Fold ClpXP protease specificity-enhancing factor.
Amino acid sequence: MKPLTPNRPYLLRAYYDWLMDNQLTPHVVVDAFVEGTQVPQQYVKDGQIVLNIAAGAVGNLQISNEFVEFNARFGGVPQQVILPMASIVAIYARENGAGTVFDIEDAYLVDDEVDSSLSVVETNDKAPEPTDEPPKRRSHLTVVK
């Protein structure tokens, strides 16, 4: 008998649709250290990041059997986010917590073998040099209606 495919992508799409149909805001909990995960590292806490994947918060959302991909802004900076299915820990509604935590599936366990379909891309992004200038002050102007 042929082994079953993982059910996580199917459950993720079903929960996403259910939450959106009920006017709730779907959030996913992501393990940021899974190989192939592309998220803004400055927002990762304790190895995880929570992302709002509602249609109004992201662009070009695609949930395939292998990845969740979308474009989003973090601190005003547009970024492409790539989440392998193995990195998705849970999906839930921000408003009431409705959702699920996914079971560990054999298909997503890390082997010692290297997957040739994924590769690591090295970047030469360097942090800006610190300057001796004092931080900019907040504007003293206020909005009057």
Remarks:
- The beta strands are 26-31, 48-52, 59-63, 67-74, 77-84, 88-93, 99-101.
- Confidence is low (pLDDT under 50) at residues 112-118.
- The helical segments are 8-21.
- Residues 38 and 82 are 5 Å apart (CA to CA).
